[in-house]
Write a structure and sequence with these properties.
The protein is α/β, with parallel strands linked by helices. It contains six helices and six strands, in the order βαβαβαβαββαα.
């Protein structure tokens, strides 16, 4: 059973991009052959980083469960809105707490969204660079989500059936990579 951590990068109440993360989490849980942990930046907000956690010994007790989830993950799906042409700074701060061995040679799936027509493409490009800098291996198929407010409802249900195929293609390629790396 593969352990996948989905990181929902927006700390905002009523986050639209969180709808995408919830949708992906529900899909994968329904399949039943993955353990999915959804980490929501709204609920896992961390103060500005002062120290990188090199091992469990460095981790404050209140974050030990979070560290264990990240450490044991076979792969990560990063979901971020695009803020001013970039990804979520709160999520970047979160990722910076973990040392690179946590991410090394693990699959990264990149998912972005915006309410505009570009779908967070600039944030997606930056997340590819970040994933490589963390020594992760990026799935070649990104899930870029234009007009995300029209594609998912507040419960994460898909509203736009035409977007089903891009989601399926993203997940197929992502899990192909996860299998190859494991």
């Amino acid at each position: 059973m593969k352990k996948i951590v989905i990181i929902s990068g927006s700390p905002r109440n009523g986050s639209i991009s969180n709808r995408i993360a919830v949708n992906l989490s529900k899909r994968l849980e329904k399949e039943g052959n993955h353990r999915i942990d959804l980490i929501d930046m709204k609920e896992s907000f961390m103060p500005p980083i002062q120290k990188v956690w090199q091992s469990k010994d460095d981790v404050p007790a209140e974050y030990l469960n979070l560290f264990t989830k990240m450490d044991e993950a076979d792969g990560f799906i990063i979901v971020s809105p695009e803020y001013n042409g970039g990804y979520s700074s709160v999520m970047k701060n979160f990722l910076d707490y973990f040392s690179k061995p946590i991410f090394k040679q693990k699959a990264f799936g990149i998912v972005t969204g915006s309410t505009g027509l570009m779908g967070g493409m600039r944030a997606a490009q930056q997340l590819v660079q970040l994933s490589v800098a963390l020594f992760g291996i990026v799935s070649p198929t990104l899930l870029v989500t234009p007009q995300m407010d029209k594609k998912f409802d507040e419960k994460g249900e898909l509203l736009d059936a035409s977007f089903e195929k891009p989601i399926e293609r993203f997940l197929e390629d992502y899990f192909w990579l996860v299998e190859r790396l494991k």
